[in-house]
Amino acid sequence: MDLLADSREVIRNDGLLLLQQLTKSNAAIQKIVAFENAFERLLDIITEEGSSDGGIVVEDCLLLLLNLLKNNSSNQNFFKEGSYIQRMKPWFEVGDDNSGWSAQKVTNLHLMLQLVRVMVSPVNSPGATASCQKSMYQCGLLQQLCTILMATGVPADILTETINTVSEVIRGSQVNQDYFASVNAPSNPPRPAIVVLLMSMVNERQPFVLRCAVLYCFQCFLYKNQKGQGEIVATLLPSTIDANSISAGQLLCGGLFSADSLSNWCAAVALAHSLQDNLTQKEQLLRVQLATSLGKPPVSLLQQCTNILSQGSKVQTRVGLLMLLCTWISNCPIAVTHFLHNQENVPFLTAQISENLGEDERLVQGLCALLLGICIYYNDNSLENYTKEKLKQLIEKRIGKENFVEKLGFITKHELYSRAAQKPQPVFPSPEQMLFDHEFTKLVKELEGMITKAVHKSSEEEKKEEEVKKTLEQHDNIVTQYKELIREQDAQIQELKEQVASMSSQNEQMQTTVTQQLSQIQQHKDQYNILKLKLGKENQSQSNSQGDGSQMNGLQTEEITQLREELEELRRQHALLQTQLGDKDALINTLVSECLCTESMCVFVCWGELEALRSQVQSQSAEINQMKTERQELLRRAEAGEEGKSSSQSRAELEQQLASATSTVAILQTEKAKLQTEVQESKKEQDDLLMLLADQDQKIHSLKLRLKDLGETVDKLSVLHYFSKYHNQSDQVGDPLVLIVWK
């Protein structure tokens, strides 16, 4: 490893050759070399030597990298985690002038493409492959490869390997597949890259390896890509056909019915991949109609495929069409019904299977047996002449069950079947050996055992199986319903638990609020009692003053009588105010009683208005006390018989004081009228409060029922409803008088 950092190039290059030999097929040494920072050093050397334009040293570095990464998941993960994939992008930045590529550059670029494929090979674990595919898209490596794919002047072997590399970079990755579908070739007008590639695939003048690479690219584009499958099938439907442009569907149909058997096979396999594991597209493809010749009515694509089969074309063509038909109608009862609806299909299949033909035809016989078996297994018995039971009877009489199973088993015994089953990429030594598709081998493996059992079963066994199947389906439906019910109940229980927790929290908050409000109520009651006590003392002092007045003498009788009348008027006004205050207290008590009767929670009375009334009452009481004081002073003067003042002067003073008292009375009467108006407004507001009480009572009742439904023990209910309307109008916190009623 130290030799790779030697400043002498000869020693460094010999170190590269030595490491190549040491790392061949030795995973332990591969890991040691990778963790000794080999990736960083090798990539630096490749960059220093000119990347793809470099010489033999670049080739040696790439060969060593291949040794370290191929079939070594640990080193691959280390390479990806070290962000070395991003450093591969500059390798593929080719210029516009692609003429005159040197042999060394072709070799270097070929090895670089192999390195990319090693990281995204289908044999790697799905998670590791998907992660590398994502990194290649994010760093722009996929975009760079697509640029080479559509460039002109690129050597054929580099173009072929680039197509294979792009295939594996997009295989099974929805994001990468979507990007590839959006790539256009730099033509006028621009055409999708898929269409340009398919034109090469169905062109018999193109190299065989290039056509295989295009087929592999198309298969990888459709692998686990239902969106892409739908887009391809849509180009065949009558409503989407554009006569002015060439579509993928038109190219596939053209290749399917051309004179070149390899084009027939490639187009049939490509169409089969458009239907792979996609029931919707299998049903959509039944709508495709083809115009075979002028003056004749169009026929369905399904019928045209069977027509070509019956014409006895080449083995490769018939194998391709049979693979397409088996993929199409498998797991699709509607397609099976369409196939059986043609009265010539079943006789043709039975005739093909029952004949004793040569070795080359045995594969076709096996595929015909597979197709007939699919018609039995996926038959919904909608056609009376071709029910499951009648088809099995036909096999038993015309072919024989054992002979049928033997012909069916010949498919998996074929040498080319085993070769195709090994890996997804179609690699064949010659066009004649291109007979099986990798995905089709999976379908045969899945269906062979099921068809064999279906053919050997009697009608009674099938009925029993149907009954068992229906019973299991019913049980499954019941279990599914119970599962859904349990999920709903779990959701409801969880929701109820959350509600209970929320209500418990609210209850605690309400208890705290109730305690605070009870304290405030007690304070208001104390203030109210003090106010009543003050008013009682004022009334008592007024009574004492009147008693003293009855003992006065020395004043003129008329003046004393007049003063007494004025005082009586003031007393009546004061009593009236006291009565109004009593009425207000009675109204409050009435509201409290109504709350107790209806089990209401709380009543709010505007304390600010009551305080205003009390303030006015106190003000008037002060004025009354002042007048009492003045009257006592007059009485004192009368009793003392003040000297130096004549009776006329005394009378003048009395008249002046009387005028002042009369003015005060007028003012008090005005204030009395205002107070009466305010009392009426207060009564109106209290009526509104009573209506709110009724609403609150209804809410309390519903809350009580809800808590009982939730399973809570309802010992007592306390709900505080604070009217923000009155709270916002109050100048002080806690002004509203709150009455809490416990059940």
From TrEMBL:
Residues 175-455 form the Vesicle tethering protein Uso1/P115-like head domain. It is a peripheral membrane protein. It holds the Pfam family Uso1_p115_head. Keywords: Acetylation, Coiled coil, Cytoplasm, ER-Golgi transport, Golgi apparatus, Membrane, Phosphoprotein, Protein transport, Repeat, Transport. Residues 612-714 form the Uso1/p115-like vesicle tethering protein C-terminal domain. GO terms for cellular component: cytosol; endoplasmic reticulum; ER to Golgi transport vesicle membrane; Golgi membrane; Golgi stack. It comes from the Eukaryota. GO terms for biological process: endoplasmic reticulum to Golgi vesicle-mediated transport; Golgi vesicle docking; intracellular protein transport; transcytosis; vesicle fusion with Golgi apparatus. Residues 479-527, 553-580, 610-685 form a coiled coil. Its main location: cytoplasm. InterPro entries: ARM-like (IPR011989), ARM-type_fold (IPR016024), P115_Arm_rpt (IPR041209), Uso1_p115_C (IPR006955), Vesicle_P115 (IPR024095), Vesicle_Uso1_P115_head (IPR006953). SUPFAM superfamilies: ARM repeat. It is found in: Cytoplasm, Cytosol; Golgi apparatus membrane. Belongs to the VDP/USO1/EDE1 family. General vesicular transport factor required for intercisternal transport in the Golgi stack; it is required for transcytotic fusion and/or subsequent binding of the vesicles to the target membrane. May well act as a vesicular anchor by interacting with the target membrane and holding the vesicular and target membranes in proximity. This is General vesicular transport factor p115. The lineage of its organism: Eukaryota, Metazoa, Chordata, Craniata, Vertebrata. The gene is uso1.
